[in-house]
Protein 1
Amino acid sequence: MKMISRRDFLKASAVVGAAAAMTACGGSSSSTAASSVASSTAASAAATNGSATVGVCIYQFADNFMTLYRADLEGYLKDMGYAVTIMDGKNDQNTQTEQINTFLQQGVDVLIINPVQTTSAQTIVDTVSPSGTPIVFINREPDKSVLDSYADKCCYVGADARQSGTYQGELILETETQGDINGDGVITYIMCKGDPENIDAQYRTEYSIKALEDAGKKVNCLYEYLDNWDQTTAQQDVANALSQYGDQIEVVFCNNDAMALGALQSIQQAGRTVGKDIYLVGVDALAEAVQDVLDGNMTGTVLNDDVGQATAAAEAAKLYVEGSAVEQYYWVDYVKVTKDNASEYVK
Ligand code: GAL
């Protein structure tokens, strides 16, 4: 079977997604249309001859989801005729800050930044703003005040993590026992959260449980693990949880698929069976997780649309290069992935 990239696979939807992201997002309550974008002569010239340079900073290459995102982004920017350099922040803010400074010395036309620490976004803006270089923040949403502080030169492209959290909860509510396998009237769960500073981790944790409570369910959290989006760490923590709490655990919530894949290894090693005596959900719709959903090894996952987000980020960069108006926020929808529709997301 011919292997195709996720980008090629979802290209058709990306074209639609890009158009939607660039228009529908304007309707978002939290989006503020940029009133104007100062168009520099240099930027316009770059757009005309297609020779703009884009510096991309990724928080960490060793992140499954951001690896997909980065490949998509590189492809779209190159398709636009831009020279692209992508740097690995190695999960270290100092390293990333140095990379940003190097990009500024090189005089890149636009920066696309996936911050290591969201709390450093203001410092990043303060470092970049004297040069007037526009910034497209991606994946890790900074405070609105940060975007406001560099108005017309700075935007955020992302997905509303509250939606993904709600979908995780709904995936559990859609199971035969609605998450209450032992029928004691309480959904007892553990949570693999992600990283503490990340709004995706915070909202997914909050909104998955809110969905259960809004449906009138009682919940009992046995333990919240951080696991930093990492498969091996989650595997170890879930193994420990399963040996400590045993059958009490009815649901394992994982805020990304890497952690869910780790959790699944431990669930299987403990002799438990997803869909029968435990439920497991993730987020991202990584190829392996989608296959597990199809095979019944995961209850469900949520598509984190890397193609739609990369397309929107590349489009935003292009608007900056061309000196066109850029909105403050571009939102891309999540999609719930269950056994019923998972085949649409298999590559
Ligand atoms: C999330 C994604 C995680 C991880 C994280 C990095 O949106 O679901 O898998 O990539 O971003 O910030």
Protein 2
Amino acid sequence: MTAGKRDVPRSILERYADLLPLSERTPRLSLGEGDTPLVRSRVLGPELGLDALYFKLDFMNPTGSFKDRGMVVAVAKAVEDGATAVLCASTGNTSASAAAYAALHGLDAFVLVPAGRIAAGKLAQAIAHGAEIVHIDGSFDDALRIARALAERHHVALVNSVNPYRLEGQKTAAFEIVDELADAPDVLSIPVGNAGNITAYWRGFEQYYRLERARRRPQMWGFQAAGAAPLVLGAPVERPETVASAIRIGNPASWQGAIEARDASGGRIAAVTDDEILEAYRRLPREEGIFCEPASAASVAGLFAQARAGARFAGRTAVCVLTGSGLKDPDTALTIEAVRHDAPADVEAVERALGWS
Ligand code: F0G
């Protein structure tokens, strides 16, 4: 693979090869992961009183979510180890990404999803990429428990974030933020579900700090949905419930990693209500031009909730990680109130409908 005319290589496999567990035998197939935009907030950052707020548009990865950073590494390592099939449990995005990278490498993909509980766009992706899908009559946590058991019994590579290569790949998002801002921000705000991503980001910031590519590390602020907030409650949630289906998780696999990231960084993990999530979800596309899925908006909702609870942002810089594309979840998007007119196919009729005549 070549970088062509660009200075920055197109894939994290190339750009951060020396910081990833790649060997000479690791295939370097890529769909163009990473190098996602860091966009400065025009409205919400100033409203919060931040010196600068940035959105890391990590949904601008090949399958529309941050999962591709981890999946490109995990599936390549599975191939290196001789696997012919991958398996995962998923609230949707992991399954879309696993299915895509399995297709890229010519492997079979098997995915377990909570029946009727994943967003339409994500299911469409898994179908399009040819995954075999088991709709489980249960939660994501049930699906992950079953996937782990299956991976022990059968010759199939488990590519959930319990696979260490996933987190290795995902930490590259932290590298990109530091590379672009020339240091870590004061606050890194991130939605938390299975807790792999917050763990991976912290690992990335730590690694860059140790390598002296960053002078400091950010406070890690993780946000869970109030109806699915085991890390906030300090105990698993039997029946997690939230509009943000991606983070509808009651017993995160990387529980310890999230707590360590919080404590080592002097950060916090807090809950945001569905109303708070939906408000941020609606404001981002209207006021900033950025359309993410509800789970991603939890990172922005979290900053507002913290501000209301007394957090002071003057003099500080924050980055919100926007993890999944708004296109993933058309059903939630279509609940947004919109101005709609119906008119015959006629100029004057459309003028009348718009009130322009
Ligand atoms: N945002 C989105 C859009 C996600 O899909 C997920 C997780 C998260 C945030 C939370 O990240 O689990 O590392 O804490 N989605 C997984 C999946 C569980 O199956 O797609 P996390």
Protein 3
Amino acid sequence: MSSIEVCLTHQQLNNYHHKDKNVVVIDVLRATSTINTILFSGAKSVKPIESIEECMKLKGDGYIVMAERMGKKVEGFDFGNSPSKIKRELFEDRNVGIATSNGTKAILKTKGSKITLISSFLNLSTVIEYLNTNKRDTLLVCSGWKGSTNLEDTMCAGAIIAGLENYEYKSDTVIIAKKLYDESKNNILSSMKKSSHAKRLSGYDNIKDIEFCSEIDKQEILPYLDDDQIVLL
Ligand code: MLT
């Protein structure tokens, strides 16, 4: 029977094997929600980048460049990391480079997996369906915030686990994530508003982002990491 594990922050990835596994990266507020929305809006690709310096270099190649640090847009970039600001007329048929505090770093660390999927609440059921029809050992990677576990990523991992069929729970973090989701599933938004990052973001007038990222199954897409860029499966 295939197994399911949850890694609660990308800094803990060294404790897990991810080679040849299904890997799902989650950063609900906001990197994976943003990446999903960019591709849902018709962009050709999204390149996750480690540093803001590297990301800015892509501008010369015609990329839209996006960067966030401490929840805010980095000066000089076209956009920060706000999914509610993504508009089809701006992103359709474009290539995008993005560097965020945790989410893009988490994605880059999963190279060597069988497949790395990009998940948020927005494409929850599409990810669950993939995992139930392509059964193999699976690792859910919560990005977290600067080494700390966060509520929204763990809750989203629990939502994925709740939809899986015939997977063996391989770590206590699976039980923790599932219990957190079971407690919150009837009102994801109000639970998310209690999170430290939601409080950090609300200070920068990002209430719209928190509401946007709490919506379930608005985007039936399956973004995955194809070499060094994220495209739709
Ligand atoms: C992250 O990468 O940690 C988040 O996406 C940060 C944010 O967008 O506020």
